[in-house]
User: What shape does this take?
Amino acid sequence: MGEINKVLVANRGEIACRVFRSARALGLSTVAVYSEADAASLHVAAADEAVAIGPSSPRESYLNAKKILEAARQVGADAIHPGYGFLAENAAFADLVTAEGLHWIGPTADIIRRMGDKQRAREIAQSAGVPVVPGSRTFGVGDTDGLEAAGRAVGYPLLVKAVGGGGGIGMRRVDEESQLASTVTATQSMAEKSFGNGAIFLERFVPRARHIEIQVFGFGNGEAIHLFERDCSVQRRFQKVIEESPAPGLPEAVSRRMGEAAVSLCTHTRYGGAGTVEFIVDATSFEFFFLEMNTRIQVEHPVTEMVTGVDLVAMQIDFARSRINGADQESIQSRGHAIECRLYAENPAKMFMPAPGPLTIFKPPAETEHVRVDSGYREGDVMTPFYDPLIAKLIAHGGDRREACERAEQALRSWPIEGLRTNRDFLIGCLRNDAFRAGDVHTSFLDEHAKAILAA
Assistant: This one.
């Protein structure tokens, strides 16, 4: 295919604005697509051109591949960046984009398809020599043959996981056998509605675990690099809240082995583009297991950018236009510590329920070399109930973890927000929590400390 001159971002909000920033720095024109609810949004204003693609419902706009391709033809875009969420890991959409003669800024449809099926991804990881969490075979809708025996073999507690799920969706914990059948039925029903695939499998749940992921970049030729780890253990209902790099208290030898395992998976699959290999890590023994691979840019990618100085989105674009075909692992260095706090329109005191409404006052802290704000909103905008309640991401960098935490806390405190409820004060409470400050983070951290944080 030819050169890339105009990039359409098939997404909205902060990730669309983020991609526009790197595309513009590379001298490329940018195109936004938008739904009716987003007609006056920041990502529309941030692009060189914008095309309306339908009603507010995601299914009729941001998930409508036909409308997005029509928009690309209308403005003469020659590349599509999917961001994260929506169609980012939809292999059929990637196929349509390339069939249209456009550059797809992401891994190939084949690798998206292979790694998007979580059970198949486990098998691929095993063949690459990467340890995986003990699990079961796949159970389709209505298939219960040997379900109880599979549960006993995996061991309780366990997770029922949708084969096609992602981002914490389609994942439910089961503590005893009496709960298994009903949980499987409920998960299959939800998965069928959300992903068009009701198949599930069982996977061992590690009670005292850490969620650590490795940022990778493959070059499609059997070569790949990693850009170190991110700790994403502070989460609620499997949704990440705070991410950081490096992972506090993680032995260097374990970090190195995880990086090697992630690269091994990329080289084995001849992966091309940015991706993230996610691991579950025993918080005591530091034994690690492959969870899944995300074949897209991650929400938390700025953490990696802050410690490495690498623009991952620019790297994605340059790879798509054949400007890079390799990199030296030794050239990637991690400096200091970075932490990202996700600012949501939600009410932490009410089970973190989304709280849409107007941003009547919204004045993010000034960006510096140590503080970065990625947002898709501005003062006067309205958070609607149609999309994810993520307002912005606050990323702070310091010479060490203590300094990064202090800078993040100071930036959050200086951020006036009025008109709707947010989790800003809850994030400050997390940063000030003694266990968090000590680096005692794990996937049950908020289950154990949320009440104390709310009461502080």
Observations:
- The domain at 209-455 is CATH 3.30.470.20 (D-amino Acid Aminotransferase; Chain A, domain 1).
